UniProtKB/TrEMBL annotation:
Domain Ig-like: 18-128
One Pfam family of this chain: V-set
Topology in the lipid bilayer: Single-pass type I membrane protein
PANTHER family: CD8 ALPHA CHAIN, T-CELL SURFACE GLYCOPROTEIN CD8 ALPHA CHAIN
Encoding gene (name): Cd8a_0
UniProt-annotated location(s): Cell membrane
Lineage start: Eukaryota, Metazoa, Chordata, Craniata, Vertebrata
Signal sequence range: 1-22
Cellular compartments per GO CC: external side of plasma membrane
Keywords: Adaptive immunity, Cell membrane, Disulfide bond, Glycoprotein, Immunity, Immunoglobulin domain, Lipoprotein, Membrane, Palmitate, Signal, Transmembrane, Transmembrane helix
InterPro entries listed in its UniProt record: CD8_asu, Ig-like_dom, Ig-like_dom_sf, Ig-like_fold, Ig_V-set
Keyword match Cell wall biogenesis/degradation: no
Predominant location: membrane
Single GO BP term: cytotoxic T cell differentiation
Protein name: CD8A protein
Length: 136
């Protein structure tokens, strides 16, 4: 399982207290137009547009509801994948200005689920809307 106590704590904080004191943060996830026609082995790129330079997390929620940490992209473009690795055989991630991208190198049934971008801003955790990615 790809969960850790630190990730679970961050997620709990995000679910408990979004938007305290009227704060808001704009996060938008962009995907290819043909995401509803994904094919096995296809490259999938998701982009997280933010209104600031804070760093971002990418996570995936599988069909059973289990959350899987994928990567942390720092505001200085450093990446940290699951298992505290700097690279991943399945994913790449990068930052350009305030856009945080996640690439699934070769989409498989194991990659199916809802993808979320998370931003930590002033000790508040903000979730993007989920982006579903499933094979037909």
């Amino acid at each position: 399982m790809d969960t850790s106590p630190a990730l679970l704590l961050l997620l709990a904080l995000g679910f408990c207290c979004p938007g305290i004191h009227g704060q808001s943060l704009k996060i938008k996830v962009k995907s290819p137009k043909d995401i509803t026609q994904l094919q096995k082995g296809q490259k999938l790129e998701l982009e997280c547009y933010t209104d600031g330079d804070r760093g971002a997390f990418w996570i995936r929620q599988d069909k059973s509801g289990t959350l899987h940490f994928i990567v942390l992209i720092s505001s200085t473009s450093q990446t940290k994948f699951s298992g505290d690795q700097k690279t991943s055989p399945r994913f790449t991630a990068h930052k350009h200005d305030t856009i945080y991208s996640l690439v699934v190198k070769s989409f498989t049934p194991e990659d199916e689920g809802d993808y979320f971008c998370l931003i930590n801003n002033n000790q508040m955790l903000y979730f993007s809307p989920g982006q579903p990615a499933f094979l037909p």
